[in-house]
Specification:
It is a single chain. This protein is an alpha+beta fold and about 260 residues long. The chain has one domain: 3-Layer(aba) Sandwich (Protein Transport Mog1p, Chain A). About 40% of the residues lie in helices and about 30% in strands. It is built from nine helices and ten strands. It has helices at about 5-30, 40-60, 65-75, 110-115, 120-125, 125-135, 160-165, 170-185, 250-255; strands spanning about 85, 90, 95-100, 105, 140-145, 150-160, 190-200, 205-215, 225-235, 235-245. The strands form two sheets. Strands 4-5-6-10-9-8-7 form a seven-stranded antiparallel sheet. A three-stranded antiparallel sheet has the order 1-2-3, with no helix packed on it. Helix 1 (about 5-30) crosses helix 8. The radius of gyration is 19 Å and the shape is globular. The chain starts with a helix and ends with a helix.
Amino acid sequence: MCIPFKEKMKQHNRWMAWFLSVFMLLSMAACASDKADPTTTPESTQKEETILDEKEAIQLEEEEPEERQEDEESEDAGYELGIIDGLTFTNDFMGISCTLPEDWVYASEAEIAELNGVVLEMFEDNEEVAELMKNSTSIYDAVAYSGDGLCNFNIIAENMGLLYGVLIDEKEYAEITVEQVKSIYETAGYANVQSEITEREIFGEEHVTIYTTSTLPEAQGGMDMYQLQILKKNGNFMGVISIASFVEDRTEEIASWFF
């Protein structure tokens, strides 16, 4: 039976409304490392910043002027967005590519720009994007979802800055993230939240991943949710690929699309 175009759009909009509500939660989890409230533990946070400042000072003293200049140039280079060509997404800056099956779709540039809180014209200019990253901690690069709405992924890049970019690797980033994920999910009404940090070979090398399982609130269907987050660091930027699958676990299958 052929479904009229208007009816298809209604179904699409219903899926998108549900998808975005879950997607925003996953995005919060992806960037959980910078979501901790500094007012809750002022003493420990202040001590940590002092230790990090001392480490940075020692490191900068040990670096040669040429090395410092290279770091500054790398920081100024800024983040470059990926490009979608048909079903293939490629971000040369982060070294991430993905080809979708035909029943999946990418979010449009306008939808991505809206998620980033900018106008489309700004989002299409890499210089504007670099400036956006200087004034923000993270940016959505790509979002894709299956035709049935039961699977999706998003790619977020987080600018950790010169200090944290030097001191925090993928493993430490994952440990910080996992500490916050359970709180974020449970606050949203999710149950049975369990996370595990592992390593896997992807992009031709070993990278840290976070695997999380949980159950959605009854208001959102009470389905089981499976999430795989793949971390890929480049300089001061941490790329986070968050893959989500509902009802059945398809995270490994979806992860195999990346190269």
